[in-house]
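Pipeline run #58 for the internal structure catalog. This entry was flagged by the ingest filter as a single-chain record with no existing model, so it goes straight to prediction. Upstream metadata was stripped on purpose; only the residue string is passed forward. Reviewer on rotation: M.T. Logging verbosity set to normal.
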Amino acid sequence: MFATKHDDPNGSLGWGERLSYGVGGFSFNMINGIIGSFLTIYFTSAVGLNAGIIATILAVSKVFDGISDLVMGRIVDKTHHKMGKARIWLLRMCIPFAVTTMLLFFVPQNWPSLAQYIYVFLMYNIVNAVCLTGVLVPFYSLVALETANPYERGLLGNIQQIFQTLGNVVVNSTFVVLLGKFTSSTETLYTQRGFTLTMLVYCAVMVIVCLFCVFNTKERVKEVEKKEISEEEKQKNKENFGVTVKALLKNQYWLLLTLGNFVVFTIIIFYAMGTVFYSQYVLYDMGQYAMLSNAISIAQFAIMFVTPIMMKKISKEKIYTFGMLVMAIGFLGSAMFTSHGILLVSNVLKGLGVGLCGGMALGMVADSVTYGKLKTGVDTVGMGNAGISAAQKIGLGLGQAIFGWVLAGAGLNAALDAQGLPQPESVSIAIKFLYGWVPAIMAGAMFVIMLLFYHCERDIQRLEQNAA
């Protein structure tokens, strides 16, 4: 209906198809955002599971999640279907993703604790390592399959990021409200009934929007037939793999960006989870959650329209470094103050900082790969981007685990929530530390490291001049 009519891979796309692709990011990021922000508090407060054990399960599971990305990428490459390589997997996987996500938020209440933990481990890995990977890898691959036009690919990526942020805003504004409407208790929002009915709404929306994306986009870039690879070529590819890894490990700017991405995504999960727990156990008012979360998301959304203008006057690495400083100041405000006005301003600064770093990251990765190629003669574009992606996943998984371990060590007791009783003061102290001081220290340290040691664009110019 909205897919651009022509089949020219280098032609321009219509806005109907561009927006149809973008809303796919909106749908998947809604569910991903809920899992990142609310899954732990569901397990601890609605089900009554131990936060430390849950944190360990989530951390261990990230190993499978990382492997599954490589497997799904291979599956997409090997797919031959009349709908193409990517859209058919979105069609096949969106309903299983919805169903398994519902089951993840439906831990059987009458099962023994050990059986519940096994259920959580299995369902979390099915949702993340199988179903979420099964939609996200094809969805991101669709950019390269819809068009070969560099401008269109860049535009689709930017539109997708905007819709992803809108997905966060929608979840921030509506999730707690729906929990309140569907809860079966007057003492707590966190009931099985509340989560089940709320997730039913979001999963239904996700499936509808995903199908809209599938049937309003078109894959125009056709694969080139490949000759059978000989044993000699296979051995050469293995040797090239080792050469690529060594070249990356010698590339100081790629290593710094890998560290930077790990830091940013660890911080992201800290504030995504932290805002929920901070509102619940520090402010004792979940009505503040939407305001605090949207302050970050809207600021991040707004800065996306400014960074392209900034890049015309300021280098990407300076914008990225400045973003780390802005983030550090924002988290420092959350660490030192609890007044609503200062918290709001602090979260705006966090969002601006994350937006500045996120907007520059992909371009800086490309620059670091260019630097490495000029220095060593080895093109590391594929492995370079895969390594950055792995750092992001490790940051998200480890951040989620650390949050759970610290809460468990601080004495978080889910039984107190069920009785409407406050948690120990040590819990609120731990949450303040994780929500403010830890991200502030991480972002501040990364700011200093980037300021002192990251000069990639300067060194690219020097190497190009020497080569000339």
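catalog note: The domain at 12-221 is CATH 1.20.1250.20 (Growth Hormone; Chain: A;).
catalog note: The chain has two domains: 12-221, 246-468.
status: ready for reviewer M.T.
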